[in-house]
From TrEMBL:
Gene Ontology molecular function: carboxylic acid transmembrane transporter activity
Gene3D superfamilies: MFS general substrate transporter like domains
Alphabetical list of InterPro entries matching this protein: MFS (IPR011701), MFS_dom (IPR020846), MFS_trans_sf (IPR036259), Sugar_transporter_CS (IPR005829)
Residue ranges of domain Major facilitator superfamily (MFS) profile in the record: 17-423
SUPFAM superfamilies for the chain: MFS general substrate transporter
Protein name: MFS transporter
Alphabetically ordered keywords of this record: Membrane, Transmembrane, Transmembrane helix, Transport
Length: 428
């Protein structure tokens, strides 16, 4: 990969880029989890069965998966900021329209559209940040972007508690207008990264040479490479194919653990340990605090000691701590305060995916790589809660959770043998 240095302007542009990406990912978390906190009211008003209610979440997940593919490809072709703004507006408008919905079919369709927009945002924001920030700060920058999701989730928990008692559950979805303001910020303050501009300019030069017949054989190969489908660039050689598979497994394992644990733990705490609703909420707040510290520290270490060593520390630490937490912590107090390290180990790895994916692919395929690799992992991990529930049938949920710390060593093996160390490299 080329080692050409790229400087993206002054410090204020670095900050504006980071703010735009963080706000975009926060809007993702907000829109994704608003449904979770008001689903009980929707079930009552629409008379939904448990299966129908579950389909609303499934529709969002499927939309996210498809959206990650579509918008990743579009961002590489037409520009990061344009497509990022569109994806944010898409889920913002769909969220706002849920205020007016009066039947289940429309509700289902809107959740799918919301998923499309959410799925597109992650990889594009990460591509913009990684193509802007200096190599020695890249992991730290993407870790701050990852924090946006946690902020959005916290807002999703707070907003319904304030709005529903005064205005009803429908008014919560008027918050959908807020992400539209974020999209305006992105369009006004974020420029297309210089790396992407250079590749598009080079492509236009080659097109002109091809049209006037002055293109050389070497340039012709370059032309077809740049004009080719970005998706193909994830599988151009055996090494890159192995890296793509390894990164996808890593994203799958992290998201599987996250969704499995944080979907089922409130139920486990309530049924097995007698937690009240307030105690369960406290557990969630403490675990999110652990996630925040874990994500920040992951980014710092990844820039200091390397991507692979940092991921290895978290995989090993997560495996050991999950065993301790699920099998040796049995009191309400230990489970409550121990959730800080649970969040730290299970979700701290989110601080590294944006950087490590970006550093393995060229700018003409970077948004595609970010979205397809992370989107595939996140999409498949959506089955995590269902798998845990199935394994717990006739047994215990705690026992079923053992699957979580079994899969971390698998991700460690894939990471160590398929993903190259990319700390400090210049991306092209």
């Amino acid at each position: 990969m080329a080692k050409e240095k790229h400087v993206e302007g002054e410090a204020d542009h670095y900050i504006k880029t980071l703010i735009g990406a963080v706000l975009g990912y926060a809007a993702d978390g907000l829109d994704m989890f608003l449904l979770s906190f008001i689903l009980v009211f929707i079930i009552k008003d629409f008379g939904l069965t448990t299966a129908e209610a579950g389909n609303l979440t499934l529709a969002t997940t499927i939309g996210m998966w498809i959206g990650s593919y579509i918008f990743g490809l579009l961002a590489d072709k037409y520009g990061r900021t344009k497509i990022l703004s569109f994806s944010i507006i898409l889920f913002a408008v769909a969220t706002f329209l849920m205020y007016f919905v009066d039947n289940y079919t429309v509700l289902l369709a809107l959740r799918f559209i919301i998923g499309l927009g959410i799925g597109g945002e992650f990889g594009i924001g990460m591509a913009i940040v990684t193509e802007t920030w200096a190599p020695d700060m890249r992991a730290r920058a993407t870790s701050w972007v990852a924090l946006g999701w946690q902020g959005g989730v916290l807002l999703a928990a707070v907003i319904p508690a304030i709005i529903v008692p005064m205005f009803g559950w429908r008014a919560v979805f008027l918050v959908g207008l807020v992400p539209a303001l974020i999209a305006i910020y992105v369009r006004m303050h974020l420029k297309e990264p210089i790396l992407w501009q250079r590749k598009k300019q080079r492509q236009q030069e080659l097109i002109a040479k091809k049209e006037n017949g002055t293109i050389t054989e070497k340039e012709q190969k370059e032309y077809y490479y740049l004009a080719g489908m970005p998706l193909k660039k994830l599988f151009t050689t055996k090494r890159i194919t192995a890296t793509t598979i390894g990164l996808t497994v890593m994203c799958l394992v992290q998201n599987f653990g996250y969704y499995a644990i944080f979907s089922w733990m409130p139920t486990i705490l309530s049924q097995k340990y007698g937690y009240s609703l307030a105690q369960t909420s406290g557990w969630m707040v403490i675990s999110i605090a652990g996630m925040v510290l874990g994500i920040i520290l992951f980014g710092i270490l990844a820039d200091k000691i390397g991507r692979k060593k940092t991921f290895a520390l978290w995989y090993i630490g997560g495996t050991i701590y999950c065993v301790i937490y699920f099998f040796f912590f049995t009191s309400q107090a230990s489970l409550l305060w121990g959730s800080f390290l649970l969040g730290f180990t299970v979700n701290g790895m989110m601080g590294g995916y944006g950087a490590v994916i970006a550093e393995n692919y060229p700018s003409e395929a970077r948004s595609t790589a970010e979205n397809i690799i992370f989107g595939t992992g996140r999409g498949l991990s959506g089955f995590g809660p269902a798998i845990i529930g199935y394994l717990a049938t006739g047994g215990s949920l705690i026992g079923a959770m053992s699957l979580v710390f079994v899969i971390y060593p698998i991700a460690l093996i894939f990471m160590w043998f398929t993903v190259p160390e990319t700390k400090g490299i210049e991306i092209d």
